[in-house]
């Protein structure tokens, strides 16, 4: 039976200090400087820090003020998600050159299953090197990679030679690697589980392996079985390429704030056309149309309407958008307008038998 | 002790009183009527311990005395008589002898002292209200009260008296009715919760009556006095839920429609609804109301379209058809208005016409969340 189980080749690609690197790439004067993306010295939290800043102990999710204290010459940069997405999609294109089994985790991280790949390359390590090289060539950014037989080991491995490195854990080393691994690095082990494991005398993969499945299930419930398997190199989860798209949007930030609805309509026409283009490209349509308005004071407002049918034509979208725009007057001048469509018709068709109704009689709340 | 009374006159009074007698009493004495004779005045009482109701009758007599007579037996006998004078004689061998034109009947009686005495109200406040107004207030609200033993306060009708108006509220948490009379006032603010049973009795006695009813009440009891009758009942103990808080203030989507048409459609369509949820779906767009129901298990389906007057966003909302039917049925107006905000918020049903001056009815109904 064992021979029938195909050993998979999974690569976990993780961009190095992604947001910070993109910022440095776009602003050469920031190269080699300690920078933080997001937040400011007074308010907000750092969403990413460059490696130069990390030396000083600046970490993501740290408050801006705290980061500034640790690293007084820290430069704060605004986040620019549109740009990150653009870079991210360029990187994904590279992935798709090798395999369709790509499971993006976020903008800067993805799993690739290259067991069978489009290049016919039998070495996952070589593919990882190629991919990292191509990322560097096309975007100028560094990526790290972990290569192994399942998602979990690959993810742990990608951290080992970070930044700008890669690590392969070949099948024969997986068991040994996992035995030495601190339990806190196991996927699914957070702060609480870690402490619980430490209390039970489980510090490494080896300790974890010495426990019976019954013992683990007793202490960790359902996850027990998962831990039991994972430490033996068994992970059932495969790379899931198709995450269903939930919404589709386009938006524009204007150079100058707009105060008149007439000018807004002009811009919205353009945005609606862009939405239409994207909808047609993905061959989808949506039922819910949302108009996003960001005022000059950065407050955000959304207005939405759900229709009975799916729409994708710009003219139809504009009709609803107009309605939403004139629904109530603008609070202020506007710096950004966006249109998004959700309730898309790309969801898998429900099974032929309709589900049992689970309608709930609501109660007055006394 | 001996008295003579008209058979139909006595029957009429006893039938009213009989409504309070439980069919299976733990205390056997409660299966009796108490006859308390004081010369020409006979007071007949019945009780279930919670509520005691008594009526005063005029009889031919010159004696005093107090006896308990089996209610069932007496009522069954009286029902068979055509109108005629009956003579009641209390014999020494613990029997009552009734003499009619047809013959003689003897019933065993119990000592009048065994009958539980009704409570006296200490320092009561009082309010006067016309009989039919009280009957209407009860019939408008009582159907909405609950049957949940866990929340006994909701099994009654909340009486809320103020110097400006009288308000009656009932709810079972799915629906709520608030009935207000601004044309009747109390001398001071008071609130109490009346149990359903005595209210049902009052409703049937007082329907169409123009007599003034005096309501006296304190912390634990209420007494209703009218005509020759007096009813004392224990109130439901507890705090009534803050119903005002759940009545939505802003319900921007307003539907006006002919009540009968709406009611008939809901009734018809609901035949096709699921037999346990009784759920129907209202879809409103423009001036069209679409009522539909579906019972997936049996592949039954119905849909009707009505024209209506609607102001607001197009919306879809689900209701338990039994609630809607009950409420629409309880109203008497030609046209009703249903105000809604969101499919998960209460709808407010009100009559558009047909109200007296100072009369106000607000009905709330919670929707059923539809899973599409």
UniProtKB/TrEMBL annotation, chain A:
UmuC domain residues: 10-190
UniProt keyword annotations, A-Z: Cytoplasm, DNA damage, DNA repair, DNA replication, DNA-binding, DNA-directed DNA polymerase, Magnesium, Metal-binding, Mutator protein, Nucleotidyltransferase, Transferase
Entry keyword Magnesium: yes
Cofactor info, note text: Binds 2 magnesium ions per subunit.
Annotated site residue numbers, Substrate discrimination: 19
Entry EC number(s): 2.7.7.7
Protein task: Poorly processive, error-prone DNA polymerase involved in untargeted mutagenesis. Copies undamaged DNA at stalled replication forks, which arise in vivo from mismatched or misaligned primer ends. These misaligned primers can be extended by PolIV. Exhibits no 3'-5' exonuclease (proofreading) activity. May be involved in translesional synthesis, in conjunction with the beta clamp from PolIII.
Organism whose genome encodes this protein: Ulvibacter antarcticus
Binding site for Mg(2+): 14, 108
Main location: cytoplasm
Signal sequence, renumbered to the chain: none
NCBIfam families noted in UniProt: PRK02406.1 (NF002677), PRK14133.1 (NF010731)
Cofactor(s) the protein needs: Mg(2+)
Reactions catalysed: DNA(n) + a 2'-deoxyribonucleoside 5'-triphosphate = DNA(n+1) + diphosphate
GO cellular component, one term: cytosol
Name used for this protein in its record: DNA polymerase IV
Family, per entry: Belongs to the DNA polymerase type-Y family.
Compartments where found: Cytoplasm
GO BP term, pick one: DNA-templated DNA replication
Assembly description: Monomer.
TrEMBL record, chain B:
DNA polymerase III beta sliding clamp C-terminal domain mapped to chain residues: 246-367
Localization terms from the record: Cytoplasm
Annotated GO biological process: DNA strand elongation involved in DNA replication
Segments forming domain DNA polymerase III beta sliding clamp N-terminal: 1-117
GO MF terms held by the record: 3'-5' exonuclease activity; DNA binding; DNA-directed DNA polymerase activity
Keyword terms of this UniProt record: Cytoplasm, DNA replication, DNA-binding, DNA-directed DNA polymerase, Nucleotidyltransferase, Transferase
Superkingdom of origin: Bacteria
Gene3D superfamilies: 3.70.10.10, DNA Polymerase III, subunit A, domain 2 (3.10.150.10)
GO cellular component term of the entry, any: DNA polymerase III complex
Database matches in InterPro entries: DNA_clamp_sf, DNA_polIII_beta, DNA_polIII_beta_C, DNA_polIII_beta_cen, DNA_polIII_beta_N
Domain DNA polymerase III beta sliding clamp central residues, every copy: 129-242
Stated role: Confers DNA tethering and processivity to DNA polymerases and other proteins. Acts as a clamp, forming a ring around DNA (a reaction catalyzed by the clamp-loading complex) which diffuses in an ATP-independent manner freely and bidirectionally along dsDNA. Initially characterized for its ability to contact the catalytic subunit of DNA polymerase III (Pol III), a complex, multichain enzyme responsible for most of the replicative synthesis in bacteria; Pol III exhibits 3'-5' exonuclease proofreading activity.
Annotated NCBIfam families: dnan (TIGR00663)
Subunit structure comment from the entry: Forms a ring-shaped head-to-tail homodimer around DNA.
Family: Belongs to the beta sliding clamp family.
Name recorded for this polypeptide: Beta sliding clamp
């Amino acid at each position: 039976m064992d021979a029938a189980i195909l050993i998979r080749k999974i690569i976990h690609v993780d961009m190095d200090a992604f947001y910070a690197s993109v910022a440095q790439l776009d602003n050469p004067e920031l190269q080699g400087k300690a920078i933080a993306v997001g937040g400011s010295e007074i308010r907000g939290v750092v969403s990413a820090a460059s490696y130069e800043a990390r030396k000083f102990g600046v970490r993501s999710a740290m408050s801006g003020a705290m980061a500034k204290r640790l690293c007084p010459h820290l430069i704060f940069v605004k986040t620019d998600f549109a740009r990150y997405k653009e870079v991210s999609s360029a990187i994904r294109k590279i992935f798709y050159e090798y395999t369709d089994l790509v499971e993006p985790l976020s903008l800067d991280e993805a799993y690739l299953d290259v067991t069978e790949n489009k290049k016919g390359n039998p070495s996952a390590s070589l593919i990882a090197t190629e991919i990292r090289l191509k990322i560097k060539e096309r975007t100028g950014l560094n990526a790290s990679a972990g290569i192994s037989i399942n998602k979990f080991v690959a993810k742990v491995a990608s951290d080992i030679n970070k930044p700008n490195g890669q690590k392969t854990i070949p099948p024969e080393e997986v068991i040994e690697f996992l035995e030495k691994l601190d339990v806190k690095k196991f996927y699914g082990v957070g702060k609480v589980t870690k402490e619980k494991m430490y209390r039970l005398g489980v510090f490494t993969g080896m300790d974890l392996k010495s426990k019976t499945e019954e013992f683990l299930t007793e202490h960790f419930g359902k996850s027990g079985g998962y831990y039991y398997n994972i430490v033996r190199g068994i992970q059932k989860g495969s790379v899931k390429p198709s995450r269903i798209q939930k919404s589709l949007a386009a938006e524009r930030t204007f150079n100058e704030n707009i105060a008149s609805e007439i000018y807004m309509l002009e811009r919205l026409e353009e945005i609606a056309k862009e939405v239409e283009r994207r909808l047609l490209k993905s061959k989808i349509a949506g039922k819910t149309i949302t108009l996003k308005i960001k005022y000059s004071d950065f407050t955000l407002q959304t207005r939405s309407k759900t229709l009975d049918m799916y729409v994708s034509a710009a003219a139809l979208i504009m009709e609803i958008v107009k309605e939403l725009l004139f629904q109530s007057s603008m609070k202020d001048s506007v710096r950004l307008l966006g249109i998004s469509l959700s309730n898309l018709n790309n969801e898998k068709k429900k099974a032929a038998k309709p589900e049992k109704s689970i309608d709930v009689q609501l109660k007055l709340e006394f | 002790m001996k008295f003579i009374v008209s058979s139909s006159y006595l029957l009429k009074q006893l039938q009213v009183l009989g409504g309070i007698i439980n069919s299976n009493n733990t205390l056997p004495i409660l299966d009796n009527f108490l006859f308390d004779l004081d010369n020409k005045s006979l007071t007949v009482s019945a009780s279930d311990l919670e509520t005691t109701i008594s009526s005063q009758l005029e009889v031919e007599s010159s004696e005093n005395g107090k006896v308990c007579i089996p209610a069932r037996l007496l009522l069954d006998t009286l029902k068979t008589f055509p109108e005629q004078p009956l003579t009641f004689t209390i014999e020494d061998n613990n029997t009552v002898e009734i003499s009619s034109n047809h013959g003689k009947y003897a019933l065993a009686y119990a000592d009048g002292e065994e009958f539980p005495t009704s409570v006296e109200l200490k320092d009561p406040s009082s309010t006067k209200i016309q009989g039919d107004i009280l009957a209407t207030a009860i019939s408008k609200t009582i159907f909405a009260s609950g049957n949940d033993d866990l929340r006994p306060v909701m099994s009654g009708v909340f009486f809320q008296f103020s110097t400006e108006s009288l308000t009656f509220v009932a709810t079972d948490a799915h629906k709520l009715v608030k009935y207000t009379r601004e044309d009747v006032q109390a001398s001071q603010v008071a609130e109490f919760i009346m149990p359903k049973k005595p209210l049902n009795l009052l409703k049937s006695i007082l329907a169409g009556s123009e007599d003034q009813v005096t309501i006296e009440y304190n912390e634990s009891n209420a007494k209703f006095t009218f005509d020759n009758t007096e009813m004392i009942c224990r109130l439901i103990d507890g705090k009534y839920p803050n119903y005002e808080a759940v009545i939505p203030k802003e319900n921007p989507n307003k539907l006006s429609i002919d009540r009968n048409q709406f009611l008939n459609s809901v009734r018809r369509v609901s035949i096709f609804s699921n037999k346990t949820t009784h759920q129907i779906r209202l879809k409103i767009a423009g001036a069209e109301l679409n009522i539909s129901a579906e019972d997936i298990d049996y592949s039954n389906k119905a849909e009707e379209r009505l024209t209506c007057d609607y102001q607001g966003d197009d919306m879809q909302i689900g209701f338990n058809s039994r609630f809607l039917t009950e409420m629409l049925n309880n109203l008497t107006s030609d046209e009703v208005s249903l105000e809604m905000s969101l499919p998960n918020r209460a709808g407010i049903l009100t009559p558009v016409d047909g109200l007296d001056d100072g009369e106000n009815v607000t009905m709330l109904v919670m929707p059923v969340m539809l899973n599409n």
